[in-house]
Amino acid sequence: MAGRTAVVVGGGPGGLASAVALVRRGWRVRVLERDTDRADSGAGLSLWPNALRALDSLGLASRVHARGAVERRGTLRDRAGRRLAMTDNAEIERRYGWPLLVLHRRDLLRVLGEALPPGVLLTGGAVRETHADADGVVVTHDGGTCRADLVVAADGLHSAVRRQWWPQGREPRYAGHTAWRMSTEPLAEPPSEGAATWGRGERFGFTALPGGRVYCFATATAPPGGATGDPRAELAEVRRRFGHWPGPVPALLDRVPAARVLRHDVYDLPPLPTFTRGRIALLGDAAHAMTPSLGQGACQALEDAVTLAACLGGGEDIDGALARYDRLRRPRTQAVVRRSARLSGVGQWAWPPAAHARDLAARLTPAAATLRSMDTVLGWSPTAVV
Fold this sequence. Notes:
The structure is a single chain. By secondary structure, the chain is α/β, with parallel strands linked by helices. The protein has one domain (5-172, 268-384): FAD/NAD(P)-binding domain, CATH 3.50.50.60. The chain has helices at residues 13-23, 49-57, 61-67, 89-96, 105-114, 160-165, 231-242, 249-254, 285-288, 297-312, 318-347, 352-364, 367-372, 375-378; strands at residues 5-9, 28-33, 44-47, 69-70, 73-77, 83-88, 101-104, 121-123, 127-133, 136-141, 144-148, 150-153, 173-183, 194-198, 202-208, 214-221, 262-268, 276-277, 280-282. Strands 6-5-14-15-16-13-17 form a 7-stranded mixed sheet, with helices on both faces. A 6-stranded mixed sheet has the order 8-2-1-12-19-18. A 3-stranded antiparallel sheet has the order 3-7-4. A hairpin with a 2-residue loop joins strand 18 (276-277) and strand 19.
């Protein structure tokens, strides 16, 4: 295995985690990330117990934990602000061994990047072409050309590598709603718990970040392509839609700087027949982009990363290892994609009788039953690979 080389296309959580895992198994790795500005200041993410187990297998869970905030409790509310359901993080930790952690995406990238040897990550290195030859895969990028025994395509929803190697794959499908992500300035008294509110064709949620900041997200049913590209206009639109919702939503929006507002239409990826082709392996959103309703996008990418490295370090040849990776990851992740899509659809219901029935069902479902329903997602462990 010594001397084997991998090129990872994409420096997001899944790409960096796969690089860390492969380096620790003796691979020589280069990560090609097209962006030079990695701040993404408006984006927060949730790391559930399955993701923290993946990070723990890399020895990084404690470092990530130190940069995040544990959400003490999460509440689901209706449009009038009445509680429909509640999740206690202490029960999550008791049941699954790890809490629900919330942090800035940039902080997760920083921890993963610091775990790589110097020179592994190349920013501003957009990939232009990949092609196979007798010695592996040749990757042409903005910084030159390199050859690898393996290419890990972690380049996101609109993966250029996937489009080249899976030309018959269906295009990402619009989920029917757009989303805003933003974070507040530090608050003297941030909310003590996270909450999500279901409206009619709209949702709003928030959760605490370290340092007194609060991460907020909002969705609205709308045609695709409506983003203005102007953060000030997007903040004005969020305030127009949600500024009169039950507290503390208006107060939080008053503390959001316009520069921290991001808007993206929400897509997921139709199922692929395989995550591998030749010496190419798809990972994260490039393989199974999903709606954010379950908070599992980054979590599943981290699972992918440690699973791929474990398969490649298991003594099999590369082709056999990639086939095993596909068998382990494709059914699981595609099931999570479907589940997240269903939850997104229900959360966006706008017809009043349907929204009322949805809210009533949420109110009548015991919290323990809701948590048990997540066992197959949150109970994953890296030991399932071996």
